[in-house]
């Protein structure tokens, strides 16, 4: 039996083909053949906008349905978590795995498109495990954003990875381990 994983890319010119594809390959290698990693291209990756990305993510969740595991990187993770907090989902999500996620709100970044949500964690699906990963050598998104998410989503499992950059050095072994731990 295979399990579906939806990987949401980060933003930037050629990110899908030249950057985050390495994360997807690492995840596939670490998980083995029981998991199927879906890696759709997000719209206008070099200049992301909340509404089109939210819609593309929702469309991909609709295609894959119940029991999905979602892994998301950087801007893609930020859009995903804020979209999920904006209203109930029609599907059971078996896990959210967020990598190097920019925080929108006090102490983090600002956005003209995303509303700052109080009690962010309470707005996420109650039974969905949430894991947050951030390298302490990330020079794109400050590692302090991990602490902001830890406060905003108290149920989240926090993974601060020593010596890892924004791409976690293209090594997602810890994420694969946590996915496998879900059973």
Gist?
This protein is α/β, with parallel strands linked by helices and 183 residues long.
What does this structure look like?
- It contains seven helices and six strands.
- By secondary structure, the chain is of the alpha/beta class.
- Helix 2 packs across helix 7 and helix 3 (50-64) crosses helix 4 (74-85).
- The protein has a six-stranded parallel sheet, with helices on both faces.
- Helix content is 36%, strand content 19%.
- The chain has a single domain, classed as Alpha/Beta hydrolase fold, catalytic domain (Rossmann fold), CATH 3.40.50.1820.
- It is globular.
Secondary structure layout plus pairing:
Elements: E1 3-8, H1 15-18, H2 20-31, E2 35-38, H3 50-64, E3 68-73, H4 74-85, E4 93-99, H5 120-123, E5 130-135, H6 144-152, E6 157-161, H7 173-181
Parallel strand pairs: 1-2, 1-3, 3-4, 4-5, 5-6
Overall tally of domains: 1
Overall SS class: alpha/beta
What's the helical proportion of residues?
A: 25-40%
| Number of contiguous helices | 7
Distance between the termini: 12 Å
Radius of gyration: 15 Å
Could you give the order of the helices and strands? Answer: EHHEHEHEHEHEH
Envelope shape: globular
CATH superfamily: Alpha/Beta hydrolase fold, catalytic domain
Biggest sheet overview? 6 strands, parallel
- Which strand-content bin applies to the residues? 15-25%
The CATH class label is Alpha Beta
Q: Give the averaged pLDDT, no decimals.
A: 95
User: The CATH topology, please?
Assistant: Rossmann fold
Low-confidence stretches: none
